[in-house]
């Protein structure tokens, strides 16, 4: 299993959110993937 932590994920329309979404789609063809979207507040604490 793979866990991806990110600050941006669709529906966020930005390069990082799109990149993480596409990365997730490719990796989950062979592995179980969970994506966790954290806010800036959660990253600080």
Automatic annotation (TrEMBL):
<dbReference type="GO" id="GO:0016740">
    <property type="term" value="F:transferase activity"/>
</dbReference>
<keyword id="KW-0808">Transferase</keyword>
<protein>
    <submittedName>
        <fullName>Glycosyltransferase family 1 protein</fullName>
    </submittedName>
</protein>
């Amino acid at each position: 299993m793979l866990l991806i932590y990110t600050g941006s994920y669709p529906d966020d329309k930005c390069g990082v959110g799109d990149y993480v979404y596409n990365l997730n789609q490719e990796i989950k063809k062979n592995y179980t993937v969970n994506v966790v979207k954290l806010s800036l507040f959660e990253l600080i604490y």
